[in-house]
Specification:
The chain is of the alpha/beta class and 358 residues long. It is built from 16 helices and 12 strands. The protein folds into 3 domains: 170 residues, Rossmann fold (3-Layer(aba) Sandwich); 66 residues, DNA polymerase, domain 1 (Orthogonal Bundle); 64 residues, Beta-grasp domain (Ubiquitin-like (UB roll), Roll), CATH 3.10.20. Strand 8 and strand 9 form a beta hairpin. Helix 1 runs parallel beside helix 10. The protein binds guanosine-5'-triphosphate and magnesium ion.
Length: 358
């Protein structure tokens, strides 16, 4: 699972990428031209607590993989534009970064921020790219000399998708039968990907709690069901490079209650229906990420395919009573230990020990 950071040039994607992943990629107009890949540690106070309780040799937080994709500039060649679009296409979900902050340096080349226009233009671009692909595929299907029943069926379906897009409806809203899904297998569309918005604001805008186009952006994202967070990418990145004792002062001063990374992680977990379960012990305390509804056996497979194959039982207790009572022994005494079978649906915050046999 990889999340693409996308949007217009100079929106602050690479700045945000550096903040999230602790990288030092060059930013700015003459910044790097290439896509960057990195992963971010998902902050989780539950892991902090478990680690302080078990004092393991290793503490491993969940991670989210990000890909920083440069924005397409007006003067870009078609080849570059299409290469960048392919990068977007290969991401599983998209975080669109929106330039709202004021910066004389950036405005000298990129002009005044036009956040609402950037937001809607980018959405339209994704739709246009999908239309382009659909038209090509439909033409190919119809021109194929030995067009069988399946090709006809497929072309019909693609035309239905095309109509939706031309009416500016998202593909997320198109109802698909299981046959449709079969016909579409392996085809991915940009406007169908989960999309989140990061509004990249500056310090003043953060203090004021307001910025240009705020109301329009809120209305648009509400209507389209796009989750939004506001981040001061540059400020946070600078703070993250300070010594810990200095950091606190700045965070207090700005009233940054939650880090950009924390907000982004929470938004992606919620919207993508992801949950965490934990494994604990003297060796290792670790968070694992699975989709809501994953059963115990599948969850075991996250750790190792042998554990999935040889699955016998899952010993489960929840983080909450452990946090309240302070030790696994007390949790056991209080009767919160459970033995679950392979079909048990793992819950967010479960602490699991898998019994298996290979
Ligand atoms: N003042 C201010 N400047 C910012 C902020 N975020 C980014 N910048 C500046 O904006 C410029 C562009 O930032 P980048 O992170 O390189 O932008 P990008 O989205 O990666 O741009 P491309 O890769 O060209 O698409 C850099 O000079 C950053 O320092 C911010 O929150 N405030
Ligand atoms: Mg960049």
């Amino acid at each position: 699972m990889q999340i693409g950071l996308v949007g217009m040039p100079s929106a602050g994607k690479t700045t945000l990428f550096n903040l999230l992943t602790g990288s030092m990629q060059p930013t700015g107009i003459s910044g790097a031209d290439e896509t960057h890949i990195g992963s971010a540690v998902v902050p989780d106070p539950r892991i902090d607590f478990l680690s302080s309780l078990y004092k393991p040799k290793k503490t491993i937080y969940a991670r989210i993989d990000f890909k920083d994709i440069p924005g397409v500039r007006m003067d870009d060649s078609r080849a570059r534009a299409s290469r960048l679009l392919d990068e977007v296409r290969s991401a599983d979900a998209l975080v669109q970064v929106l330039r709202v902050f004021n910066s004389a340096e950036v405005e000298a080349t990129a002009g005044e921020p036009t956040p609402y226009r950037d937001l809607t233009d980018y959405g339209a671009e994704l739709i246009l790219a999908d239309i382009d692909i659909l038209e090509k595929r439909i033409a190919r299907l119809e021109e194929s000399p030995k067009a069988g029943k399946e090709s006809v069926e497929q072309a019909e379906l693609l035309k239905r998708l095309l109509t939706a897009l031309e009416n500016e409806e998202s593909l997320k809203g198109v109802e698909l039968t299981s046959r449709d899904k079969e016909l579409l297998a392996g085809q991915s569309f940009l406007s169908e990907k989960p999309l989140f918005l990061v509004v990249n604001i500056d310090e003043d805008q953060l203090r004021r709690g307001d910025y240009p186009d705020r109301e329009k952006i809120t209305a648009y994202t509400l209507e389209k069901g796009i989750p939004v967070i506001e981040i001061c990418a540059l400020v946070e990145m600078e703070i993250s490079r300070l010594q810990p004792e200095e950091r606190f002062e700045f965070i207090e001063d700005l009233g940054l209650h939650d880090s950009g990374l924390g907000l982004l992680a929470r938004m992606t977990y919620e919207s993508l229906n992801l949950i965490s379960f934990f494994t604990v012990g003297d060796d290792e305390v670790r968070a694992w990420t699975v989709h809501k509804g994953t059963n115990a056996r599948k969850a075991a497979g996250k750790i190792h395919s042998d554990i999935e194959r040889g699955f016998i039982r899952a010993e489960v207790f929840h983080y909450d009573p452990l946090h309240q009572l302070g030790s696994a022994a007390k949790v056991r005494e209080a009767g919160h230990f459970r033995l679950e079978g392979k079909d048990y649906q793992v819950a967010d915050g479960d602490i699991i020990n898998f019994r298996f046999n290979v």
